[in-house]
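Intended use. Records like the one below are meant for learning the mapping from a protein sequence to its folded structure. Do not use them to infer anything beyond what is encoded.
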Amino acid sequence: MRMKIPITGTVKSIDPHIVGDNDDVIRPINIDLGNVRWTLIRLDLEAEEMEIEITASPTITDSVSVRPTTPGERAAALEHALDRSLGRMSKQALYALSKSPRLKNPFR
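Structure written out for the chain above:
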């Protein structure tokens, strides 16, 4: 399942490659997506967002053990992550929720 989230950090160069500042790397905002794994699909500096592919984690670690997730837990984990996506919240609301600064991009 794909979703989009805002990015933060500082862009130092875009030619010939995108380069972030070592002290403020380009990254997703600091937001808890829950019990999911994600993979970067696309980075959009102009829109200040990244598209990611999310999958529910196959296991849950509780205070005493690791166990497989149930189908209901996997569905709830995906729903939790999607509730924190640009499709369901505004970019401004996500930046505020995460307390992350907007992307610094002097090349816009």
